[in-house]
């Protein structure tokens, strides 16, 4: 082969390789574009549907004007006459489909290109993170997957870097990517980590009425609020107890009341014992409800709590007789009971009163044993210390709605780290934790007037009446529990 020929072969080989790489890159971009398209949610993306709908008239216009375009092409020397004739003479259907395919491919290419530019920052993340293994290796991005319009899952090969070390970089990752880290979990093997990232901001405020318009509560449930990944609704029967804590003005009482309201609205057969030692002012709107009893003094609280505790033992006996060990397995009608204590320190941090001690003991027993028999505790406190909420009670409460806490000690008590001190100082902003799972949330806001109106509505609803299903609770001395049933048939 002559030198000239060799040169031509190598140029054409180079061009061929470049062409193949170009095709590969385009296919890759189209695939990325398709992935992005599927990750987009039509309902939440106001521009996507009109854009796709607009494509039909655009394509129709292009097709009907194909002749015009073709005649323009004829004057252009770079297109062969045959090619222009071909465009001008193709059938309407062929032309329509060709244009549609061309526009779709261009659309996917642009989408894919956006995706590529966007993913670039993930690729650069590992270099910017101050993480190196003993061998000087950086973690490597294995996969970037768009979970939905707001969420991205980053799968990372740790390459010898410890998982715990990566977890300490949470805030650095957030500032590099300008995204929120929702979770850092172990992946399919201990050498793989999965980081869930979210780019949606929390709303500054969310109302109870807007949440209830969007999502109807299933039985025994209440709204927690709006997280970056959407609304959170919790089922009390699965929690089964809840702690609400945070400094003054954080939104505990508003959250407490809207949660009780949600439970009352979703579960007509729920009995509630609301202990409010600030003379019942917090729960005053619930006063008229037939299935709610408001407790205002320590002595009354001690009696009610003891009665509820006895009710718990009675239920276990019933379960034993029916060869079951929980309310779900019992099968017969049995109400769920909610014992809610606002500012529980007034009850628990009261060492001189025997009644307070008895109340504390009952709550301890309920927190330990009531899980299976449909009795739930909801306690709220401003301060989280061993005195305000005893450790053995707190340890048995899995559901935690925590608003900003001023002290590191308080945060350590509820979360074991400083995250509760880092919550934004903004009413209704907090962290919802259920076991190990946590989410930043904006809790629902409801006014006193709305609570009062909804309570009146609940009370006038004939279907909402607690039946005397547990007839044995009418034994003498258990009247506190029965006060609720005064309106029953
Ligand atoms: N989810 C919310 N969204 C918007 N504003 C809220 C929200 N929750 C509470 N607020 C505002 O913050 C104020 C204080 O809320 P709340 O009374 O619930 O605080 P708290 O934590 O119970 O305080 P304290 O410990 O003093 O009783 C409310 O009057 C209301 O104006
Ligand atoms: Mg309050």
Fold blueprint:
Blueprint lengths: L2 H37 L8 H17 L1 H9 L6 H9 L2 H37 L11 E7 L4 E7 L5 H5 L2 H8 L2 E7 L5 E7 L7 E2 H7 L6 E7 L2 E6 L6 E4 L6 H15 L3 E7 L15 E4 L2 H24 L5 H4 L5 E7 L2 H4 L5 H16 L5 E7 L9 H4 L4 E5 L4 H8 L13 E6 L2 E6 L1 E2 L2 H13 L18 H4 L7
Parallel strand pairs: 5-16, 8-12, 8-13, 9-10, 9-11, 11-12
Antiparallel strand pairs: 1-2, 2-4, 3-4, 6-7, 6-15, 13-14, 14-15
Bound molecules: adenosine-5'-triphosphate and magnesium ion.
The site of adenosine-5'-triphosphate has 15 residues, from helix 9 and strand 16.
Write up what this structure looks like.
The chain has 3 domains: 18-119, no CATH class; 129-198, Alpha-Beta Plaits; 206-487, Rossmann fold (3-Layer(aba) Sandwich), CATH 3.40.50. Helices cover 45% and strands 19% of the residues. It is built from 17 helices and 16 strands. The chain has helices at residues 3-39, 48-64, 66-74, 81-89, 92-128, 163-167, 170-177, 208-214, 252-266, 298-321, 327-330, 345-348, 354-369, 391-394, 408-415, 448-460, 479-482; strands at 140-146, 151-157, 180-186, 192-198, 206-207, 221-227, 230-235, 242-245, 270-276, 292-295, 336-342, 375-381, 399-403, 429-434, 437-442, 444-445. Strands 7-6-15-14-13-8-12-11-9-10 form a 10-stranded mixed β-sheet. Strands 1-2-4-3 form a 4-stranded antiparallel β-sheet. A two-stranded parallel ribbon has the order 5-16. A hairpin with a 4-residue loop joins strand 1 and strand 2 (151-157). It is elongated and about 105 Å long. Bound molecules: adenosine-5'-triphosphate (ATP) and magnesium ion. Magnesium ion binds next to helix 9.
């Amino acid at each position: 082969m002559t030198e000239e020929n060799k040169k031509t072969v190598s140029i054409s080989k180079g061009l061929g390789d470049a062409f193949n790489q170009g095709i590969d890159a385009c296919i890759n971009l189209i695939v990325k574009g398709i992935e992005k398209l599927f990750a987009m949610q039509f309902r939440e993306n106001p521009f996507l549907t009109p854009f796709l709908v607009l494509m039909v008239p655009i394509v129709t216009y292009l097709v009907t004007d194909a002749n015009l375009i073709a005649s323009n092409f004829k004057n252009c020397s770079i297109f062969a006459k045959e090619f222009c004739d071909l465009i001008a003479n193709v059938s309407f259907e062929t032309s329509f489909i060709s244009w549609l395919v061309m526009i779709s491919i261009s659309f996917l290419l642009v989408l894919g290109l956006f995706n590529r530019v966007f993913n670039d920052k993930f690729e650069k993340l590992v270099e910017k993170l101050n993480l190196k293994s003993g061998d000087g290796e950086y973690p490597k991005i294995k996969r970037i997957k768009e979970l939905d319009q707001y969420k991205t899952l980053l799968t990372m090969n740790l390459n010898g870097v410890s998982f715990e070390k990566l977890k300490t970089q949470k805030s650095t990752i957030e500032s590099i990517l300008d995204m929120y880290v929702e979770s850092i979990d172990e992946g399919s093997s201990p050498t793989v980590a999965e980081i869930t990232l979210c780019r949606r901001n929390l709303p500054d405020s969310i109302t109870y009425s807007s949440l209830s318009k969007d999502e109807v509560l299933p039985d025994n449930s209440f709204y927690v609020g709006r997280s970056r990944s959407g609304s959170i609704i919790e089922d009390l029967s699965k929690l089964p107890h809840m702690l609400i804590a945070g400094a003054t003005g954080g939104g505990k009482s508003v959250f407490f009341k809207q949660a009780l309201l949600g439970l009352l609205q979703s579960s007509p057969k729920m009995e509630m014992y609301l202990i409010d030692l600030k003379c019942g002012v917090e729960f005053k709107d619930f006063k008229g409800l037939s299935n709610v009893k408001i407790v205002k003094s320590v002595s009354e609280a001690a009696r009610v709590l003891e009665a509820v505790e006895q009710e718990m033992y009675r239920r276990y006996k019933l379960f034993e007789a029916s060869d079951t060990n929980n309310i779900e397995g019992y099968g017969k009608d049995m109400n769920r009971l909610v014992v809610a204590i606002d500012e529980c320190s007034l009850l628990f941090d009261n060492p001189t009163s025997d009644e307070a001690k008895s109340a504390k003991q009952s709550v301890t027993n309920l927190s330990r044993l009531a899980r299976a028999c449909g009795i739930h505790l909801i306690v709220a406190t401003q301060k989280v210390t061993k005195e305000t909420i005893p450790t053995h009670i707190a340890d048995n409460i899995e559901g935690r709605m925590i608003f900003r806490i001023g002290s590191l000690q308080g945060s350590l008590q509820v979360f074991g780290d400083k995250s509760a001190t880092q919550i934004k100082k903004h009413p209704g902003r907090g962290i919802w934790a259920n076991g190990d799972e946590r989410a930043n949330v904006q809790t629902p806001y409801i006014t006193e007037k709305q609570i009062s109106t909804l309570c009146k509505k609940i009370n006038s609803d004939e279907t909402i009446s607690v039946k005397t299903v547990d007839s044995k609770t009418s034994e003498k001395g258990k009247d506190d529990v029965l006060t609720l049933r005064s309106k029953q048939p």
